[in-house]
Amino acid sequence: MTRIITPVLRAALLAPVLALFGVQLHAQSYPTRPIRMVVPTSPGGVTDIAARAIAPALSDALGQSIVIDNRAGAGGVPGTNTVAKAAPDGHTLLAVFDSFISNPYVFRNAPYDTLRDFAPISLMIRGPQLFVIYPRLGARTFNEFLALAKSRHPPLVFATAGAATSSRLSVELFKASTRLDATLVHYKGGAPALNDLLGGHVEAMIASAGLVLPAVKAGRLTVLAVTSRNRSALVPGVAAVSEFVPRFEALSWVGVLAPAKTPRAIIQRLNAELTRLLAAPEQAERFAGLGYEIVASTPEEFGTWIRSEAAKWSKVIREQNITAE
Fold this sequence. Notes:
Blueprint: H1 7-29, E1 35-39, H2 46-62, E2 66-70, H3 77-84, E3 92-97, H4 99-106, E4 118-133, H5 142-151, E5 157-160, H6 166-178, E6 183-186, H7 190-198, E7 204-208, H8 209-217, E8 222-226, E9 251-259, H9 264-278, H10 281-288, E10 293-294, H11 299-320
Parallel strand pairs: 1-2, 1-3, 5-6, 5-7
Antiparallel strand pairs: 3-9, 4-7, 4-8, 4-9, 4-10
């Protein structure tokens, strides 16, 4: 039996082929203009440093300039929303810190969905946080600190980098896991929190290694533990919190995303270029000095990481009734 191919049937048969050809052609011509990489934090933080570390080489690889656009304020929500609403053509990217996960849960009116509105490109770097105290507190080991914390009335005072930051959430997870009370003082950033800790105005802090490691090496802070699942070469001989609080883990990280519905071919090209650039020895050395290791994940691995972190921290936020206020 001979089938007659009508114009309508021909169009239906050709549509998938033409769509695939269109995506491939779009990816081959990409990018056609400068790329804006939004960093929803102030200049100088690890997310900004990471974005600027890769921008020159990525610009050379793609043949277009990479413009770093710092959009700080309100926990980074407005800057992040700028990318969520941008055209999904690969010309607007987002570099994020770990607070990307928690923001929609602590800012109840966040206008975007981290799982729905973004396309993962790569988890670039990841590293432990350090549990540090003011030296005059007297504790030299984590066990000594736990004993001191249990005996103190009023409770010990922890500094955090802000009400919606990972340094706050790590303390909340610690409190919930150990059933210890603590007073939290929220600062407008890690630098002022660290300054007050160095001055003895607060007593403890859980923060990214890059922020507090220089003070630890200078002997101005005592590090009691790392928050990675296992011990870290960053601070040899220092225990992991998980040795005292089973399964405790809180990591800092930086990744790159694009708006949802960005063509798969563009995501793959960006991932391939980032993976190649991050493999350079100078990048590993640069980030090791900040307390991070290179990950350079696939888009799928980064998506899995985002979902697992969202499930973990949203549970903490919900059970502890944490808000950004």
